[in-house]
């Protein structure tokens, strides 16, 4: 077997193992010990991820992915050992400060998700426009796909409405969001600064968030509320672990985590293409995108994605269901506001220097 293929498989397996360990260890600590223990483990994992990302940035070796696998069980054991008896005051203080960091970082995560979602929708709109300009057959296919997206979004919103509009304030916010989306879509069409592909993608984004606002809270329980103590043999251990994974991992958190990390990943790939023509005209001798500010930002996001993963996941786990709902409404309103500003102040789609923005 080719050594490169073997090493690549080992590296990808190590990365998958790292993701699964983080997904399990954080809620497990929150369930079995306490919130301060969870915060300490989150702080240790974040510190490790920061060091790992810096070494990757400087060294760039795949061996680091394999070498870090034993670190997560080690940090978990350190946390359990630290909280098995009286907690040192310095550890309690560190956990308290980390709690404040995660809390005050909440608006940043919401802003990143909203901006990334808008960038992704506009990129899909640009790609759809380019395909439509190539052949009329593509135009028909794009119209059908956009219509399907609108129908799916409408069905999704109708299905989620009873739970999402459970209170007068929630129903009011839902009505405001839908009305604003419809008005912005009409305004965007009138100003020729958006198209049906971009609008349909944002309708799916709106439906997804409304669905999360009304996610059936009875479908999951608080990880700290129904944990069964481990017994003294391996089979009950495994049964308890399987029961924990099946019933106690907060499903809305996992859905929100997957979407947030995925959309930020997509947006980081889109960033270097923004303003490409302008940058190239300013520096015609440039060898590529490596010196662009957006490319540097992309490299930082991709290098420290494990740190972002740990911090976003920790923040979501700390939120109670009610807080998650209000952060979700904040995300909807922020994204619609950002889209409205972009539609009003953005340049016309006919400008060749802004090819990334669609008509």
From TrEMBL:
InterPro entries: Ice2
Alphabetical keyword list: Membrane, Transmembrane, Transmembrane helix
Transmembrane segments: 20-45, 140-161, 173-191, 302-319, 325-345
GO cellular component: cortical endoplasmic reticulum; endoplasmic reticulum membrane; perinuclear endoplasmic reticulum
Stretches of the chain forming a coiled coil according to its record: none
Highest taxon of source: Eukaryota
Single Gene Ontology BP annotation: endoplasmic reticulum inheritance
Keyword Transmembrane found: yes
A Pfam family matched in the record: ICE2
PANTHER family on file: PROTEIN ICE2
Protein name: Unplaced genomic scaffold scaffold_309, whole genome shotgun sequence
Organism: Paxillus rubicundulus Ve08.2h10
